[in-house]
Amino acid sequence: APCRGGDAAQAHDAAARALAAALHGGGGVPIERLRRRRARLVLDQRFEEAAALRDAEVALRAAGGRLRAVREARALHGVVLAPHRSPGLLAAFAVAFGLEVERRAIPRTGEGRLEARALTVTVRHAVDAGPGVDGPAAVHPERRDEALLLAEAFSGRITGVASVRYTGADDVFGTAVRNARARVPAA
Predict the structure, then answer these.
(1) Tens digits of residue pLDDT in 50-84
(2) Which of 107, 6, 117, 27 shows the shortest CA–CA distance to 16?
(3) Which secondary structure element, helix H or strand E, spans residue 5, and what is its range?
(4) What is the C-alpha to C-alpha distance for residues 133 and 101, in angstroms, rounded to an integer?
């Protein structure tokens, strides 16, 4: 503990820096150190403390997995198409840095160039503007689930939706958005 001073304060500072680096994407979660300490506690027959460290390791692994998922989600740009409550329309979600930047209803059939162009421009402008001052790894806790849900849609693991990733080629992207409309079933 830092209140003890000396070596304890230095060890605490090192642990805090390692955890901060892990949380900000600069390093791995310090699981190995927890394992070594837990092994020493078991050898000393301090089983309750070892169990507490085991639980802390499980929690750190879960948090690390969730952080990785959010970071991966924040790298996604494109459009997600889903059924709309009106049978002649689709709900289109423009996505940049894993978050919805615009939502609009687009026609299920017809040419659709104007709507696809508007979505393309929205995504391109949001990508060009960047992820914000905190960087692509940062996301407000209230929007974390949104980023994870959109990542699921982009992965294809949600049935009944279609997604198109933005690669920077506006014409190809617009055509892909228009073509993806056919892959979304009616509500």
Answers:
(1) 999 899 888 888 887 888 888 888 889 999 999 99
(2) 27
(3) none
(4) 16
